[in-house]
Amino acid sequence: MRRSFKFLLRPTAKQTATLSACLDDHRELYNAALEHRRTAYRRAGVTVRYGDQSAELKYIRGEDLDGQGRWSFSSQQATLRRLDKAFAAFFRRLKAGKAGRKPGFPRFKGSGWFDTVEWPKDGDGCRWDSQPEHPTATFVRLQGIGHIRVHQHRPVKGRVKTISVKREGSRWYVILSCDDVPAEPLPTTGATAGIDMGVASLITTSDAGHLDNPRHLAASASRLTAAQQALARKTRGSNRRRKAVARLAALHAKVRRQRLDGVHKAALALVRAYDVIVCEDLRIANMTRSAAGTRDAPGAGVAAKSGLNRSILDASWGIFLTILTNKAESAGRELIAVNPAGTSRTCSRCGHCAKDNRLTQAEFACTACGHIAHADVNAAINILRAGLALRDAAQAA
Fold first, then answer.
1. What is the mean pLDDT of each run of 10 residues along the chain (397 residues)?
2. How many domains, in total, are found in the chain?
3. Do 115 and 255 belong to one domain?
4. Which of 28, 133, 157, 289 is most buried when burial is the number of CB atoms within 10 A of its CB?
5. Are 40 and 56 in contact, with CB atoms under 8 Å apart?
6. DSSP run (H or E) holding 333
7. CB of 28 within 8 A of CB of 191?
8. 288 within domain boundaries
9. What is the pTM of this model?
10. Domain around 219
11. CA 320, 326, 327, 328 torsion: positive or negative?
12. Is 392 among the domain residues?
């Protein structure tokens, strides 16, 4: 399996400045390559590809030894591949031609929108655990920067494939992408569960278990509002404004870390408790699309939909499902995704499906057989049955 390991870096003041310079130079390379492609096509109708721009790197590096020439050739190639992937995604979206959605032409990166540099191969311009003889610390060596101390809080498993450095606010992280990571199967429990994702409760299981939604964004809303208002009062370009930006970014980073910690713990609890887990195959991007109102009332329901979208994104359904998938694979558990359509309106006892069955957000009362249950538990039972039926059909085939 392929897994990533993320560790906090402990750079010195000089290394921090050099890391920032490395990011800036790679961002300039990305923007220059984007401008090259745009200009060549607009003026001459010529399509410039990754191979053409990669071949020009040696001339760029030779002319700018104190700038682009300082950094690893392979990391600069990775930056050009990043641009190539952005164009490939743009043409893919353009070909799909979904109504009402712009394909999104690649944009120039500002200083706050380019925070990662990748080295595609361990040993080529970078080296993980570059001083293994050191008894108490781990270091990563990066070309042009040197040996940077790493806060390694857990062992690295598998074979290090790629190394990335990322800036998050005032913190720096190293991300290792490793191949051949061994699985760690957990003891079987014989239990199965369907899980219903929600906003009131983050997770509801088919055996009536509930996990509360911590609502990290809502809990920090007052501090975020105050920080945003303080930022709005600062003069652009001033030192006070830069400090206000850093304070606001630190608050958002804390919310992000809280979300990630919560979904890791929730996913691990499910993987430890159940052998088979059935979840909803949610299209979160479609669910959180902005409302346009109606033709007669263009603003009708837009504010309510905006609040719902904010709650869904704060609950981190997408991150949770991704982490649950990875943990289930590593633990040897079976994860089944089913179509969620109708699961919240269908009676888990008689199978009757009607809109009137769902009385409120939490109450379910079947209009056909009179079955009464918690709405989310009823939906989770339907999800479990759909997943088991899907598995049985696949095994029979």
1. 94 97 96 96 93 93 88 96 96 82 90 93 90 82 95 93 94 95 92 91 91 89 95 94 93 92 93 94 79 59 77 86 93 93 90 88 88 92 93 86
2. 2
3. no
4. 28
5. no
6. none
7. no
8. yes
9. 0.84
10. 192-396
11. positive
12. yes
